[in-house]
Design brief:
homodimer, 225 residues, mainly alpha, Ferritin, 10 helices
């Protein structure tokens, strides 16, 4: 374990972050498995299932890390349940294409956000987070499927573009609630005397990068952001 | 690949069997993930999620094996969709305890059945099937949970005992439909000139063993079979 984790403020922030990430992976697993039920073909079902299983594997690693820190993973996840559950309740896909876009856009945005934060963490935690977020190679499947759906039914493209915007809006508003409620996370982002952090300008630049990457993902899907 | 697989009749039977097993694992994954949504605690949710992910891992291995045999896994699964979907449609758990019992009893019965058949197969296929069915260590969780539920709400025990009987009845009737419809499977069971098979007496003994094991599992859960 890194020496940074001896600092109780830093440690609390890291436990919060891992708890949020773990619960996020667990709900992502659940939602992807649910979306697999909407899949039009067995191949689609299996692809979504593979994504769901990969998320569950990530959850297991995060749970193990929390245990190694002497923390009950379930207690660490609990503060983030309401936020993630609200996000998913407000963004339940109405059909298969919406599920695909959510899987891709939601995953991408969450991964970008955690990667940004990982840059400010100790090596051990950073490595774990980056490995957890490593692209599992399923994006290509989603991109190809969404592009085909839009080429076959152009009208669906407009609806999915709106859907993408709603997903981002909802994600950002839930992220704000989390940071506002959890001092540990805010302090983690703010840094400390011997630890770099983000000032307001840096946070602004981070959001600019997140938004830019999101637009890139929407464009790859053939959708306007 | 074993020499047995050069025999087209044997090969057709094996492809059928692997297709049925693969689709069974894929639907088991889906149902367990769905049941995880009913879980009363995060710990329960994670346990069911782990079972679901393990099933998906099995599905992936079977899919790879079918590809190695030069067969499209999705085409091999297709003939078994209706049967498994019917089974699940007729045995949708009404609540969390029913989901737990179904996970345990259904998994156990399926595993016993495939293990019985594996004894008549070439070494490569047999090893794959036995490894696919290896207990992933989650049974202990289900047994403990069901026993606690019954000790807290004894009335639930009677309902779950009936539920267990319905699960077996439905499973056996669907299994009969499959064997009746798929000549490849019947021929696999019947054996060939240079390959041992099951005569009617052996099939009878197999069903006796399946029923006995089922009763044992119900007893372990604290339920009368």
């Amino acid at each position: 374990m890194s020496a940074e984790l001896d600092d109780p403020v830093y440690r609390t922030g890291v436990v919060d972050l891992l708890g949020a990430l773990a619960y996020g992976e667990l709900t992502a697993f659940e939602r992807l498995a649910e979306d697999a039920a909407l899949a039009p073909t067995l191949l689609d079902k299996a692809e979504l299932g593979a994504m769901a299983s990969a998320e569950f594997g990530h959850f297991t690693r995060l749970q193990e890390r929390l245990s190694a820190l002497g923390v009950d993973a379930y207690a660490a996840m609990e503060p983030f349940r309401a936020t993630f559950d609200n996000f998913h309740a407000h963004t339940a896909p109405a059909d298969w294409p919406e599920g695909l876009v959510k899987a891709h856009v939601g995953d991408g945005l969450a991964a970008d956000f955690y990667r940004e934060i990982a840059a400010y963490l100790d090596t051990g935690t950073r490595t774990l987070i980056l490995e957890t977020l490593a692209d599992t190679g399923h994006s290509a499947f989603v991109v190809a499927r969404v592009r085909r759906i839009i080429s076959e039914q152009p009208a669906v493209g407009g609806r999915l573009a709106l859907w993408g915007r709603r997903l981002v809006g909802e994600a950002l508003s839930q992220a704000q609630v989390v940071v506002a409620e959890r001092d540990g996370l805010s302090l983690l982002l703010a840094g400390g005397v011997d630890r770099p952090g983000m000032d307001l300008a840096a946070i602004g630049r981070m959001f600019a990068r997140l938004t830019e990457n999101h637009s890139g993902r929407m464009a790859a899907l053939g959708l306007s952001a």
